[in-house]
Amino acid sequence: MTTIKDLANKGNLFTQGHRACAGCGGTVILRLLMAAAGKDTVVVGATGCMEVVSTIYPYTAWNVPFLHNAFENSAATASGVESAYRALLKRKKTDKKINFIAFGGDGGTYDIGIQSLSGAMERGHNLLYVCYDNGAYMNTGIQRSSATPMGSSTTTSPAGSVVKGKMQNRKDLTEIMVAHNLKYAAQASLSNWSDFVSKVEKALAVDGPTFINVLSPCPLGWGYDTSLSIELSRLAVETHFWPVYEYEDGKYKINIKPKQVKPLEDFLFKQARFKHLKNEPELVEEIKKSVEEKWNCLLQKESSCK
To answer: In angstroms, rounded to a whole number, what is the distance separating the alpha carbons of residues 48 and 209?
Structure first.
């Protein structure tokens, strides 16, 4: 099992000095990701918060080769780089083992980038795609995305007297990736760093495409004190809002089953984006019902695979 000391000894491949907001979950995700992947890694990043804060010319927070591309084609760019690498292997121009990682936020993954992501998964490129899911287009003004939870207030789905925030359930992208017949796909949370690191290591050991979806708390878009990012990550897991599980070789495994499930309100009402729901008990009950239906469905999938 990888320890914090093991990760620290690898050095900072995603360094301090970036321009992210205080309390940003995305930068923690990238730092853990790179510590797990190691220096022999090529990273491709879609336009979005993590690209903007880490590559402000003439500076970079990356100590590995990094390619920035458009919002929609992170997975396509990584596919091309990985294909070029395979050509070099075939011609015996190199024998070095290199990891290929593409990443994007939910806007560049769930929405704008899903076509290139689906193509890369279907073609079978040997790469890991990591989505940092903060539930909206945070970089451009906190607009709703298909990852935005029901009831969340955003600048394009504002909570008011008629509409109570976003009225649709979020897209289940992890299950869409599972439907691509991947050998490995998973969800993770910052509250359980060792679980995330283990999943990155597993994914990179697979010969073929893999996918990890990580909940990425955003103080600006969610509306909370910057000190609460890890606490909210933990509450998301403990309330069943964000299940932590993996799909490996056709089998589901829930990695964290809370011994005592906490009320969903404990997670929702610490965030300004859900504050209007305090006066909407029926909508809260609808959200809770949806969350528990997803959890029970996941339990059934895990049970049927044993």
So the answer is: 22
